[in-house]
Amino acid sequence: MKFSPLVDELIKSLQCLPGVGPRSAQRMTFQLLERDRAAGHKLGQALSEAMADVGHCQRCRTFTEQTLCPVCDNPKRARSGQICVVESPADVLAIETSGQYDGRYFVLMGHLSPLDGLGPDEIGLDRLEQLLQDEAPQELILATNPTVEGDATAQYIADMCRESSIRVSRIAHGVPVGGELEYVDGTTLALSLSGRREL
Amino acid sequence: MKFSPLVDELIKSLQCLPGVGPRSAQRMTFQLLERDRAAGHKLGQALSEAMADVGHCQRCRTFTEQTLCPVCDNPKRARSGQICVVESPADVLAIETSGQYDGRYFVLMGHLSPLDGLGPDEIGLDRLEQLLQDEAPQELILATNPTVEGDATAQYIADMCRESSIRVSRIAHGVPVGGELEYVDGTTLALSLSGRREL
């Protein structure tokens, strides 16, 4: 025996969300049906609208329902002549929250991963190359994740720009602020030492 | 800075789900937009349909989009003359999965909780009283949760039936199968001892 068809369908559909299994899907379904149908309605609508209308920014590839995202659409952001390359829109938000960057972005929407069929074209490097020619920025800041794939992607982009006059930099890796040396892993400490700066 | 309006709206709406905070909502949004728009579309539709069409079974109060749920609609389930009272539709599924019960159900959709404004009428006890008169079952099995509120609710229903000739029983509480005595709490062990049966 199962629940009624519509309830079953909702429980099954909710499991497309990352981290949601049959149990949590059931709990979510009952919570919405019992306590908050208005919120459920709103969520349904928000989902349908976002899935239908959200596309990619023509310049930086982040998610937006306009042709250009708010950052690319802001002429002030072009002044610094910097482009920061990140893996995902969430990384853009993280950097914006730091308040230390006023240039533009380029969002790869992933990283190089040949085994998964993600080559240079899939992460938009052809588009990035075109952008570098068109905008001729002064600096390209590589802010991909400090993982094997992220590092490889950064290296690939750096190699790509070797011929041009663009300054290519990689964000610093080291001990995070507020952390304790005792609990930092060896690789991070090694990077932190090799990347030391004079005071 | 935030994401674009539709993306923001989706991230905010997802937080109506129990256990979903801003971070998971963001991860869910990006996962759906990047990898699985079809599933997102389907989820949006399932939500809208369920919120609009799912109501309560006229007889047992569980969730269904029909007048009667499949269990109440099945004449075979009336034969045993038993009604099992549970707190939620998930409990119905749990009991059905055990395969040991072929009677009907009555779903309270909660438990007595005067402080939250949940009195006898809110959990449908007026409806249950009517049902007991109409169907005159042989046995009423109280399978509310073994919590303070669940026990109080069971006691209240038992008192309600004192005048009638219906046999009222409570499911057994004790050591769960596969558990180890060493790790079972004192109250459960005490109940398990006081509820012992001759072999």
UniProtKB/TrEMBL annotation, chains A, B:
Q: Which superkingdom, per the lineage?
A: Bacteria
Q: Which residues form the signal peptide?
A: none
Q: Positions of the zinc fingers (C4-type)?
A: 57-72
Q: Does the keyword DNA damage apply?
A: yes
Keywords, A to Z? DNA damage, DNA recombination, DNA repair, Metal-binding, Zinc, Zinc-finger
Does the record bear Phosphoprotein in its keywords? no
Enumerate the Gene Ontology biological process terms: DNA recombination; DNA repair
Q: Which PROSITE patterns match?
A: TOPRIM
Q: Any idea where the Toprim domain is?
A: 81-176
Question: Which CDD domains does its entry note?
Answer: TOPRIM_recR (cd01025)
InterPro entries in the record, alphabetically? Answer: DNA_Rcmb_RecR, Rcmb_RecR, Rcmb_RecR_Znf, TOPRIM_dom, TOPRIM_RecR
Q: What GO MF terms are annotated?
A: DNA binding; zinc ion binding
Functional note? May play a role in DNA repair. It seems to be involved in an RecBC-independent recombinational process of DNA repair. It may act with RecF and RecO.
Protein family according to the UniProt entry: Belongs to the RecR family.
Q: Mind telling me what this protein is named? A: Recombination protein RecR
Q: What is the scientific name of the source organism?
A: Ferrimonas sediminum
